[in-house]
Amino acid sequence: MIVPRYWAEAKRQIDQDDRRLTIRRYGWSDDSEPAAQQHAEDRVNEAIKRIEAGEQTLLREPKVAYNGADGLPIREEIISRHEDAVVTRNSYGALCLNTPDVLFADVDAPPSSSCAVYFYTLFLYAAAYFVLARLFADARSIWLFLLGALFFVTIFGSVWHWLVDRLARSPKAKARQRIERFANRSQDWSLRLYETPMGWRVLVTHATFDPRSDEVRDFFQAIGADPTYRRMCFNQNCFRARVSPKPWRMGITAHLRPRPGIWPVSAERLPARTQWVQHYEQQAKAYSACRFEASIGSSVICPKASAIVKLHDVLSRAQSPEPMA
């Protein structure tokens, strides 16, 4: 995991096959801006050597905050450091806890859609209209019937969904069942389960892990971890958890300024970002990012995971009654 404090960019033009190519590379450092600039220059020179050797190479790296080109570090503002864990502000303004070896996993379980019910309801409306139009001469009787049908089918559909959720279990209940099934099979694992607005978060506490290991990959597969999250963990070689609310879930419609919210920000544009962040932080006091649900599996907790649990629960307000966002 690399989360640098300083960033720079270098570019150079070369002539190749009657074309002029511009090569751009980013550099980074925890020491200083000059060190970041030197790193960028070194990476440009390395890219030119590969191009001259006939290798397929990007001319310009994409400027993205997280999970960009393979090998690029996390490009987010560092809010605080806690040993080797880092709290950053992501591109839409929320705080994220990044750890090199304490295992987090997000399991999304969006609610089932009722679109099919309403599609069939609309079909029934149309069929009923054409049939009844031949049977009733009074148009008002037809509309009264259709309004009655609308009310009946809507109520029926709601009851049907309620029964399905109770009998077949909701997506969120099924996701939790997968997590508990894994815990039952892995008696030596210790899991902390948190509810999120879209599903569950799992924090593993009995040991630390290599984000690119087969053990982690198998764990993600078993509990149905979000595929995008899996890819991010592998590419950035770390684990990650959002620990403050999403802005739009708190009614904040304005984007983090300036757009896009990628760090660093030029001095003249920093006041706009600061103003947005102050408003966001004020609103976030009334919300939590997740809610602690239960401890599953063994009671073993390693010292490093214990420190991350405390930090995560304070930042995310996981033990508080505030609504999740």
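[next item in queue]
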Amino acid sequence: MKKSYTASFKAQVVLELLKETKTFAQLASEHGVAVTVLRDWKLAALKGLPDVFERRDSVTELKLAHERELAELYAEIGRLTTHVNFLKKKLPS
């Protein structure tokens, strides 16, 4: 069975790796994680680091886009509700 780790645990271990006070082998034995897994986590963290600073702008853009889409969907719901009510009145039961 594959072992699963939380994101906070991974972040903590990667921070220790980045401090470079201990070797991969030492950290692997302390935390019970394979050395190759630690290398993968470190590479993933280093690759994702630039996105941390870019996401601030994209998050506000996403929020604005979400709000626009939500407004459009509510308008569509209103139109469809009006159509349904009209058809209910016009069609015989």
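[queue empty]
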